[in-house]
Amino acid sequence: MGDSRSPTKDSYSILGITKTATIKDMCKAYKSLVTKWNPDKNPSNKTEADAKFKEIKEAYKVLNERKLEDLLANEDDPTTTAGAHSHHKSVDDIGFFSRRSSFLSRTSSRRSQTPTPTRSYLSRSQSKSSSTTPRMQSTPATPTSTTKFSTSPTSTTESSTKRASESRSKSTSRRSASEIPSVLSRNASRRSTTPIIFSQSTARRKPPPVEKTLECTLEDLCFGCVKRINITKDVIMDPGIIVKEHEVLKINIQPGWKKGTKITFEGKGDERPGNLPPDIIFSIDEERHPLFKRDGDDLELKLQIPLVKALTGCSLTVPLLGGENMNLSFDDILYPGYEKVIPGQGMPINTDEEKRGDLRIKFLVDFPMHLSRKQRSQAHAILRQCT
């Protein structure tokens, strides 16, 4: 019977690649297809997208594991020369192999200081007489941790010829294990190409929240509004590829909100291997208004009037927050520091939507910069008896 994981013509055609395609080409095609056929991005034909998504994943898994086994088989074959397989085993392929091994390894005891290898990639080779199978494990410290190799015999026989063959195979495997890390060490300093593949950790912690500032005008905080914020975040797609995803967050600004009010979106931050996505917290900040200044639930407005109106009384048009106007008449003398309070024209009270603060108008009296001698005499005659 054939290997159920052997690549077929359909697997190559599903990914849209040829049989001579490299691992990098295969991964690039896979990333493009899973992004295109993600069921969440195809709500109109979700059934077709879901079937296509699973088909792409299965084809990628079959081709990827077969290429990985071929790569490891070449490392264990002592008769293969560097020139014979240098075309198929580039530094990029080995670099991908180290990242892929980090993803495929499943270690149940990641929290221990000495993780135990739990998975072999050449299980079929256990039936061969010459066998030291490389087993891969990833240290749980970081997602890009260096892959380690260890060798262990998988079969023994009583035949002296098979023991001799096993001894030669061990020697060859030790040489391969000592050569591969040196290649991986040189490749680790290079910037990895997409797709980026990480191992999934069972113990996931939540990073600190990401805090952002949301600027709002006094009108926004007085009458309420809806703010839509575009964010771009990293999302880990199965089987561990990080892609960019755009999302629109909607915030309903309530009347009466103040500076410092915080709105939390749980789990909307960037996804990272081994971590839960952090929360995003938006903190309200008030933009400076050209006319009004907020003081708690009250609004302050400063108006300048000439001295003659301050002394003789006047009618004024007072602007209100939102663009409306109010007409006020004053018979009293408006001295510097005089304050007029208009109830119910301030900011809404968040705990009681039916109530509002006050509008406090402070008057700034403009005194003349110059008076003639005659004007001074007249002003003195008028004001000398005022108390």
TrEMBL record:
What are the residue boundaries of the J domain, all occurrences included?
10-95
Signal peptide (UniProt feature, chain positions): none
Q: Which CDD domains match?
A: DnaJ, DnaJ_C
List UniProt keywords, sorted A-Z.
Answer: Chaperone
Give residue spans, biased composition: Low complexity: 103-159
Swiss-Prot/TrEMBL GO biological process terms: protein folding
The record's GO CC annotations read: cytosol
| An annotated Gene Ontology molecular function | unfolded protein binding
Per the record, the domain of life is Eukaryota
Renumbered to this chain, the Polar residues biased-composition regions fall at 184-202
Q: Bias category Basic and acidic residues: which stretches?
A: 160-169
Looking up PROSITE patterns in the UniProt record yields: DNAJ_2
Region annotation (Disordered) ranges: 103-208
Q: Which PANTHER family match?
A: DNAJ CHAPERONE C-TERMINAL DOMAIN-CONTAINING PROTEIN, DNAJ HOMOLOG SUBFAMILY C MEMBER
The name of this protein is: DnaJ subfamily B member 4
Q: Taxonomic classification, please?
A: Eukaryota, Viridiplantae, Streptophyta, Embryophyta, Tracheophyta
